[in-house]
Amino acid sequence: MTRRPLVIAALAALLPLAAVAQTPVQSGPYKILQTVKVGGDGGFDYVTADSNARTLYIARSGPAGHIGVFNLDTLAPLGDIPGVSAHGAIVDHASGHGFATSKPITMFDAKTLAVLKKIDVGGSPDGYLLDAYNHRYYELSHSAPNVTVIDPKDGSVLGTIDLGGAPEQAVTDGRGHIYIDLEDKDAIAVVDADTLKVTGKYDLSSRGGGCAGLAIDAKNSILFAACRDKKNMIILSASDGHILTDLPIGVGSDGAVFNPDTNEVFSSQGDGTLTVIKENSPTSFVVEQTVKTPVRAKTITLDTKTGHLILITAEFGSVPAPAARAPGSAPAEAPRPAGRVRPPMIPGTFSILVVGK
Protein backbone atom coordinates (compact mmCIF):
# COMPACT_ATOMS: atom_id res chain seq x y z
CA MET A 1 0.00 0.00 0.00
CA THR A 2 2.43 2.54 -1.19
CA ARG A 3 3.17 4.77 -4.17
CA ARG A 4 -0.08 6.71 -4.81
CA PRO A 5 -0.86 7.11 -1.06
CA LEU A 6 2.31 9.25 -0.77
CA VAL A 7 0.61 12.01 -2.71
CA ILE A 8 -2.68 11.48 -0.93
CA ALA A 9 -0.95 11.62 2.46
CA ALA A 10 0.65 14.94 1.58
CA LEU A 11 -2.68 16.40 0.47
CA ALA A 12 -4.42 15.09 3.56
CA ALA A 13 -1.75 16.73 5.73
CA LEU A 14 -2.53 20.10 4.15
CA LEU A 15 -6.31 19.91 3.99
CA PRO A 16 -7.60 17.17 6.32
CA LEU A 17 -10.62 19.11 7.51
CA ALA A 18 -11.60 20.19 4.01
CA ALA A 19 -11.44 16.61 2.76
CA VAL A 20 -13.74 15.42 5.53
CA ALA A 21 -16.17 18.30 4.95
CA GLN A 22 -16.60 17.35 1.29
CA THR A 23 -17.87 13.87 2.20
CA PRO A 24 -21.36 13.87 3.74
CA VAL A 25 -21.56 11.84 6.94
CA GLN A 26 -24.85 9.97 6.90
CA SER A 27 -26.58 8.69 10.00
CA GLY A 28 -26.78 4.95 10.48
CA PRO A 29 -26.11 2.08 12.84
CA TYR A 30 -22.31 2.07 12.64
CA LYS A 31 -20.16 4.16 14.95
CA ILE A 32 -16.79 4.13 16.67
CA LEU A 33 -17.23 1.88 19.69
CA GLN A 34 -13.71 2.07 21.08
CA THR A 35 -10.45 3.92 20.59
CA VAL A 36 -7.30 2.64 22.30
CA LYS A 37 -3.98 4.48 22.11
CA VAL A 38 -1.35 1.77 22.11
CA GLY A 39 1.58 3.96 21.03
CA GLY A 40 4.76 2.40 19.77
CA ASP A 41 7.24 3.44 17.13
CA GLY A 42 7.33 2.81 13.41
CA GLY A 43 5.18 3.39 10.38
CA PHE A 44 2.03 1.37 9.82
CA ASP A 45 0.02 -0.09 6.96
CA TYR A 46 -2.11 -3.22 7.30
CA VAL A 47 -4.05 -4.55 10.28
CA THR A 48 -5.21 -8.18 10.40
CA ALA A 49 -7.84 -9.75 12.67
CA ASP A 50 -7.59 -13.45 13.48
CA SER A 51 -11.19 -14.05 14.54
CA ASN A 52 -10.70 -17.72 15.44
CA ALA A 53 -7.72 -17.17 17.73
CA ARG A 54 -9.06 -13.77 18.93
CA THR A 55 -5.82 -12.00 18.10
CA LEU A 56 -4.95 -8.86 16.14
CA TYR A 57 -1.71 -8.37 14.21
CA ILE A 58 -0.27 -4.93 13.47
CA ALA A 59 3.04 -4.59 11.66
CA ARG A 60 5.20 -1.52 12.20
CA SER A 61 7.89 -0.49 9.75
CA GLY A 62 11.19 1.35 9.75
CA PRO A 63 14.25 1.14 12.01
CA ALA A 64 11.97 0.47 15.00
CA GLY A 65 9.90 -2.07 13.09
CA HIS A 66 8.14 -4.85 14.97
CA ILE A 67 4.96 -6.96 14.89
CA GLY A 68 2.48 -6.11 17.64
CA VAL A 69 0.04 -8.82 18.74
CA PHE A 70 -3.12 -7.81 20.61
CA ASN A 71 -6.15 -9.44 22.18
CA LEU A 72 -8.96 -8.93 19.67
CA ASP A 73 -11.59 -8.59 22.41
CA THR A 74 -9.80 -6.27 24.84
CA LEU A 75 -7.06 -4.82 22.58
CA ALA A 76 -4.57 -5.55 25.36
CA PRO A 77 -1.06 -6.41 24.12
CA LEU A 78 -0.31 -10.14 23.99
CA GLY A 79 3.22 -10.10 22.65
CA ASP A 80 5.62 -8.64 20.16
CA ILE A 81 8.06 -9.75 17.48
CA PRO A 82 10.92 -7.23 17.59
CA GLY A 83 13.29 -6.34 14.80
CA VAL A 84 10.82 -6.98 11.96
CA SER A 85 9.99 -4.08 9.64
CA ALA A 86 6.92 -5.10 7.65
CA HIS A 87 3.68 -3.94 6.06
CA GLY A 88 1.50 -6.63 7.60
CA ALA A 89 1.27 -10.06 9.23
CA ILE A 90 -1.13 -13.00 9.15
CA VAL A 91 -1.33 -16.55 10.59
CA ASP A 92 -2.12 -19.86 8.90
CA HIS A 93 -3.90 -22.06 11.46
CA ALA A 94 -3.40 -25.30 9.56
CA SER A 95 0.35 -25.04 10.05
CA GLY A 96 0.48 -22.78 13.10
CA HIS A 97 2.84 -20.48 11.23
CA GLY A 98 2.60 -16.74 10.76
CA PHE A 99 4.11 -14.60 8.01
CA ALA A 100 5.10 -10.94 7.92
CA THR A 101 5.75 -9.01 4.71
CA SER A 102 9.24 -7.94 5.64
CA LYS A 103 12.21 -8.37 3.30
CA PRO A 104 13.10 -11.15 3.62
CA ILE A 105 9.69 -12.56 4.61
CA THR A 106 9.55 -13.43 8.31
CA MET A 107 7.99 -16.78 9.24
CA PHE A 108 7.07 -17.13 12.93
CA ASP A 109 5.41 -19.51 15.38
CA ALA A 110 1.86 -18.32 16.10
CA LYS A 111 1.92 -19.53 19.71
CA THR A 112 5.38 -18.50 20.89
CA LEU A 113 5.95 -15.66 18.36
CA ALA A 114 9.46 -17.03 17.86
CA VAL A 115 10.97 -16.33 14.45
CA LEU A 116 11.30 -19.66 12.61
CA LYS A 117 12.69 -18.67 9.27
CA LYS A 118 13.61 -15.83 6.94
CA ILE A 119 12.46 -16.40 3.36
CA ASP A 120 14.33 -14.63 0.58
CA VAL A 121 12.01 -13.17 -2.05
CA GLY A 122 12.37 -10.64 -4.82
CA GLY A 123 10.52 -7.38 -5.20
CA SER A 124 9.35 -5.36 -2.21
CA PRO A 125 6.91 -7.28 0.02
CA ASP A 126 3.74 -5.31 0.77
CA GLY A 127 0.31 -6.94 0.61
CA TYR A 128 -0.59 -10.56 1.37
CA LEU A 129 -3.27 -13.23 1.23
CA LEU A 130 -3.76 -16.64 2.83
CA ASP A 131 -5.89 -18.91 0.67
CA ALA A 132 -7.50 -21.83 2.51
CA TYR A 133 -8.43 -23.46 -0.82
CA ASN A 134 -5.04 -25.14 -1.13
CA HIS A 135 -3.25 -23.61 1.86
CA ARG A 136 -0.93 -21.14 0.19
CA TYR A 137 0.42 -17.78 1.26
CA TYR A 138 0.61 -15.04 -1.38
CA GLU A 139 3.04 -12.15 -0.94
CA LEU A 140 2.34 -9.11 -3.13
CA SER A 141 4.92 -6.65 -4.44
CA HIS A 142 4.59 -3.53 -6.60
CA SER A 143 7.85 -4.48 -8.33
CA ALA A 144 8.66 -7.82 -9.97
CA PRO A 145 8.06 -10.49 -9.08
CA ASN A 146 4.55 -9.20 -8.32
CA VAL A 147 3.50 -12.31 -6.42
CA THR A 148 5.56 -14.88 -4.54
CA VAL A 149 3.68 -18.01 -3.46
CA ILE A 150 4.83 -19.76 -0.29
CA ASP A 151 3.92 -23.09 1.33
CA PRO A 152 2.90 -22.23 4.93
CA LYS A 153 3.97 -25.65 6.20
CA ASP A 154 7.69 -25.18 5.67
CA GLY A 155 8.12 -21.73 4.14
CA SER A 156 9.28 -23.06 0.78
CA VAL A 157 8.73 -20.88 -2.29
CA LEU A 158 6.33 -22.59 -4.70
CA GLY A 159 6.61 -20.07 -7.49
CA THR A 160 6.19 -16.48 -8.61
CA ILE A 161 3.57 -14.72 -10.76
CA ASP A 162 4.06 -11.80 -13.11
CA LEU A 163 0.90 -9.67 -13.08
CA GLY A 164 2.19 -6.93 -15.36
CA GLY A 165 1.23 -4.31 -12.80
CA ALA A 166 1.40 -3.22 -9.17
CA PRO A 167 -0.86 -5.30 -6.90
CA GLU A 168 -2.56 -3.77 -3.87
CA GLN A 169 -5.07 -6.18 -2.34
CA ALA A 170 -6.00 -9.78 -3.11
CA VAL A 171 -9.07 -11.89 -2.34
CA THR A 172 -10.05 -15.51 -2.91
CA ASP A 173 -13.38 -17.09 -3.76
CA GLY A 174 -12.34 -20.28 -1.97
CA ARG A 175 -12.86 -22.26 -5.17
CA GLY A 176 -9.50 -21.89 -6.85
CA HIS A 177 -9.63 -18.29 -8.07
CA ILE A 178 -7.52 -15.40 -6.75
CA TYR A 179 -8.40 -11.81 -7.65
CA ILE A 180 -5.78 -9.06 -7.35
CA ASP A 181 -6.34 -5.38 -8.06
CA LEU A 182 -3.59 -3.68 -10.06
CA GLU A 183 -3.37 -0.10 -8.83
CA ASP A 184 -1.38 1.27 -11.77
CA LYS A 185 -3.25 -0.60 -14.52
CA ASP A 186 -6.86 0.11 -13.49
CA ALA A 187 -7.57 -3.60 -13.66
CA ILE A 188 -8.12 -6.76 -11.65
CA ALA A 189 -5.99 -9.81 -12.43
CA VAL A 190 -7.51 -13.27 -12.17
CA VAL A 191 -5.13 -16.03 -11.03
CA ASP A 192 -5.68 -19.80 -11.09
CA ALA A 193 -4.74 -21.04 -7.63
CA ASP A 194 -3.75 -24.47 -8.93
CA THR A 195 -1.53 -23.47 -11.83
CA LEU A 196 -0.44 -20.06 -10.47
CA LYS A 197 -1.15 -18.56 -13.88
CA VAL A 198 -2.96 -15.35 -14.79
CA THR A 199 -6.11 -16.42 -16.62
CA GLY A 200 -7.64 -13.00 -17.25
CA LYS A 201 -7.77 -9.30 -16.46
CA TYR A 202 -10.86 -7.20 -15.83
CA ASP A 203 -10.58 -3.66 -17.16
CA LEU A 204 -11.96 -0.99 -14.78
CA SER A 205 -10.75 2.10 -16.65
CA SER A 206 -14.20 3.00 -17.99
CA ARG A 207 -15.42 3.66 -14.42
CA GLY A 208 -12.29 4.60 -12.47
CA GLY A 209 -8.76 3.70 -11.51
CA GLY A 210 -6.12 3.61 -8.83
CA CYS A 211 -8.02 0.87 -7.07
CA ALA A 212 -6.52 -0.14 -3.73
CA GLY A 213 -9.13 -1.90 -1.62
CA LEU A 214 -10.67 -5.13 -2.91
CA ALA A 215 -13.40 -7.24 -1.31
CA ILE A 216 -15.45 -10.21 -2.48
CA ASP A 217 -18.89 -11.67 -1.96
CA ALA A 218 -17.75 -15.22 -2.67
CA LYS A 219 -21.24 -16.71 -2.49
CA ASN A 220 -22.60 -14.49 -5.26
CA SER A 221 -19.26 -14.01 -7.12
CA ILE A 222 -19.19 -10.23 -6.80
CA LEU A 223 -16.06 -8.09 -6.52
CA PHE A 224 -15.88 -4.65 -4.90
CA ALA A 225 -12.95 -2.47 -6.00
CA ALA A 226 -12.39 0.69 -3.95
CA CYS A 227 -10.76 3.21 -6.29
CA ARG A 228 -9.01 6.50 -5.64
CA ASP A 229 -9.07 8.28 -9.01
CA LYS A 230 -12.83 8.89 -9.11
CA LYS A 231 -13.42 8.16 -5.41
CA ASN A 232 -15.79 5.32 -6.16
CA MET A 233 -16.50 1.67 -5.47
CA ILE A 234 -16.68 -0.31 -8.70
CA ILE A 235 -18.87 -3.39 -8.33
CA LEU A 236 -18.41 -6.19 -10.86
CA SER A 237 -18.98 -9.85 -11.56
CA ALA A 238 -16.10 -12.05 -10.43
CA SER A 239 -17.07 -14.60 -13.08
CA ASP A 240 -16.58 -12.47 -16.18
CA GLY A 241 -15.62 -8.95 -15.09
CA HIS A 242 -18.92 -7.38 -16.14
CA ILE A 243 -19.30 -4.07 -14.27
CA LEU A 244 -22.62 -3.91 -12.44
CA THR A 245 -22.44 -0.38 -11.06
CA ASP A 246 -20.27 2.05 -9.13
CA LEU A 247 -21.00 4.11 -6.02
CA PRO A 248 -19.25 7.09 -4.38
CA ILE A 249 -16.82 6.65 -1.50
CA GLY A 250 -14.41 8.99 0.30
CA VAL A 251 -10.91 10.17 -0.59
CA GLY A 252 -7.89 7.88 -0.33
CA SER A 253 -9.31 4.38 0.09
CA ASP A 254 -6.66 1.83 1.08
CA GLY A 255 -8.70 -1.17 2.12
CA ALA A 256 -12.06 -2.93 1.76
CA VAL A 257 -13.79 -5.90 3.39
CA PHE A 258 -17.09 -7.73 2.85
CA ASN A 259 -19.21 -9.11 5.68
CA PRO A 260 -21.22 -12.09 4.37
CA ASP A 261 -23.38 -12.12 7.50
CA THR A 262 -24.79 -8.65 6.77
CA ASN A 263 -24.18 -8.40 3.00
CA GLU A 264 -22.27 -5.15 3.51
CA VAL A 265 -18.97 -3.99 2.09
CA PHE A 266 -16.80 -1.44 3.88
CA SER A 267 -14.19 0.91 2.41
CA SER A 268 -11.85 2.83 4.73
CA GLN A 269 -10.49 6.18 3.54
CA GLY A 270 -7.63 8.41 4.62
CA ASP A 271 -9.86 11.49 4.58
CA GLY A 272 -11.56 10.36 7.79
CA THR A 273 -14.50 8.39 6.40
CA LEU A 274 -15.64 4.78 6.36
CA THR A 275 -18.13 4.01 3.58
CA VAL A 276 -20.74 1.29 4.16
CA ILE A 277 -22.39 -0.18 1.05
CA LYS A 278 -25.34 -2.52 1.34
CA GLU A 279 -25.86 -5.37 -1.11
CA ASN A 280 -29.66 -5.61 -1.23
CA SER A 281 -29.39 -8.30 -3.90
CA PRO A 282 -26.68 -9.47 -6.31
CA THR A 283 -27.81 -6.69 -8.67
CA SER A 284 -28.82 -3.94 -6.23
CA PHE A 285 -26.37 -1.89 -4.14
CA VAL A 286 -26.65 1.36 -2.18
CA VAL A 287 -24.45 3.53 0.03
CA GLU A 288 -25.93 2.81 3.44
CA GLN A 289 -23.79 5.05 5.66
CA THR A 290 -20.65 7.16 5.80
CA VAL A 291 -19.03 6.88 9.22
CA LYS A 292 -16.75 9.68 10.42
CA THR A 293 -13.38 8.33 11.53
CA PRO A 294 -10.01 9.92 12.38
CA VAL A 295 -7.98 11.12 9.41
CA ARG A 296 -5.56 8.49 8.01
CA ALA A 297 -7.56 5.53 9.31
CA LYS A 298 -7.30 4.06 5.81
CA THR A 299 -6.75 0.32 6.30
CA ILE A 300 -9.31 -2.08 7.70
CA THR A 301 -9.93 -5.64 8.85
CA LEU A 302 -13.11 -7.50 9.83
CA ASP A 303 -13.71 -9.51 12.98
CA THR A 304 -16.05 -12.11 11.51
CA LYS A 305 -17.22 -13.26 14.96
CA THR A 306 -18.49 -9.88 16.20
CA GLY A 307 -18.96 -8.04 12.91
CA HIS A 308 -16.71 -5.26 14.19
CA LEU A 309 -14.35 -3.37 11.89
CA ILE A 310 -10.83 -2.64 13.12
CA LEU A 311 -8.88 0.36 11.82
CA ILE A 312 -5.56 1.93 12.80
CA THR A 313 -4.30 5.50 12.72
CA ALA A 314 -2.15 8.08 14.51
CA GLU A 315 -1.79 11.83 14.88
CA PHE A 316 0.79 13.71 12.83
CA GLY A 317 2.59 17.02 13.18
CA SER A 318 3.53 19.52 10.51
CA VAL A 319 5.79 18.78 7.57
CA PRO A 320 9.27 19.97 8.60
CA ALA A 321 10.57 23.02 6.77
CA PRO A 322 13.73 22.57 4.63
CA ALA A 323 16.95 23.30 6.52
CA ALA A 324 18.38 26.78 5.81
CA ARG A 325 21.67 26.96 3.93
CA ALA A 326 24.13 29.71 3.16
CA PRO A 327 23.43 31.78 0.02
CA GLY A 328 25.17 30.35 -3.03
CA SER A 329 26.00 27.01 -1.42
CA ALA A 330 24.91 23.74 -2.96
CA PRO A 331 22.18 21.74 -1.24
CA ALA A 332 23.36 18.81 0.86
CA GLU A 333 21.30 16.41 -1.25
CA ALA A 334 18.92 16.45 -4.16
CA PRO A 335 15.43 17.66 -3.23
CA ARG A 336 12.82 14.97 -2.72
CA PRO A 337 10.05 14.72 -5.34
CA ALA A 338 6.93 16.73 -4.66
CA GLY A 339 4.36 14.89 -2.56
CA ARG A 340 6.86 12.54 -0.93
CA VAL A 341 7.52 14.46 2.29
CA ARG A 342 5.46 13.01 5.10
CA PRO A 343 4.71 14.77 8.37
CA PRO A 344 6.16 13.19 11.51
CA MET A 345 3.95 10.98 13.65
CA ILE A 346 3.35 12.41 17.13
CA PRO A 347 4.82 9.95 19.67
CA GLY A 348 2.34 7.89 21.65
CA THR A 349 -0.64 8.61 19.38
CA PHE A 350 -0.83 5.38 17.39
CA SER A 351 -4.34 4.01 18.00
CA ILE A 352 -6.62 1.06 17.31
CA LEU A 353 -10.25 1.84 16.44
CA VAL A 354 -13.25 -0.47 16.72
CA VAL A 355 -16.31 0.34 14.59
CA GLY A 356 -19.59 -1.48 14.95
CA LYS A 357 -23.28 -1.21 15.72
Alpha-carbon Rg, integer: 20 Å
For the termini, the CA-CA separation is 28 Å
CATH architecture of the largest domain: 7 Propeller
CATH class of the largest domain equals Mainly Beta
CATH superfamily of the largest domain, by name, is YVTN repeat-like/Quinoprotein amine dehydrogenase
Q: Tally of extended strands? A: 28
**What structural category do the secondary elements indicate?**
mainly beta
Strand content: over 45%
CATH topology of the largest domain: Methylamine Dehydrogenase, Chain H
What is the makeup of the main sheet? 4 strands, antiparallel
Mean pLDDT over the full residue set: 91
Trace the largest sheet across and list its strands. Answer: 1-28-27-26
Which features would summarize this protein structure in a list?
Methylamine Dehydrogenase, Chain H, 2 domains, 357 residues, mainly beta
Concise summary:
The protein is 5% helix and 48% strand. With 357 residues, the protein is mainly β. The strands form 7 sheets. Strands 1-28-27-26 form a 4-stranded antiparallel β-sheet, with no helix packed on it.
Topology record:
Blueprint: H1 4-14, H2 16-21, E1 31-37, E2 43-50, E3 55-61, E4 66-71, E5 77-82, E6 89-92, E7 97-100, E8 105-109, E9 115-119, E10 125-131, E11 136-141, E12 147-150, E13 157-161, E14 167-172, E15 177-182, E16 187-192, E17 197-203, E18 211-217, E19 222-227, E20 232-237, E21 243-248, E22 253-259, E23 264-269, E24 273-281, E25 284-292, E26 300-303, E27 308-313, E28 351-356
Descriptive account of the structure:
It is globular and about 55 Å long. With 357 residues, it is mainly beta. A hairpin with a 5-residue loop joins β8 and β9 (115-119). The two termini are 28 Å apart. The chain has two helices and 28 strands. The protein is 5% helix and 48% strand. The chain has a four-stranded antiparallel β-sheet, with no helix packed on it. A four-stranded antiparallel β-sheet has the order 2-3-4-5, with no helix packed on it. It has helices at 4-14, 16-21; strands at 31-37, 43-50, 55-61, 66-71, 77-82, 89-92, 97-100, 105-109, 115-119, 125-131, 136-141, 147-150, 157-161, 167-172, 177-182, 187-192, 197-203, 211-217, 222-227, 232-237, 243-248, 253-259, 264-269, 273-281, 284-292, 300-303, 308-313, 351-356. The protein has two domains: 1-37 and 167-304, 7 Propeller (Methylamine Dehydrogenase, Chain H), CATH 2.130.10.10; 39-162, YVTN repeat-like/Quinoprotein amine dehydrogenase (Methylamine Dehydrogenase, Chain H, 7 Propeller), CATH 2.130.10. The model is unreliable at 2-22 (pLDDT under 50).
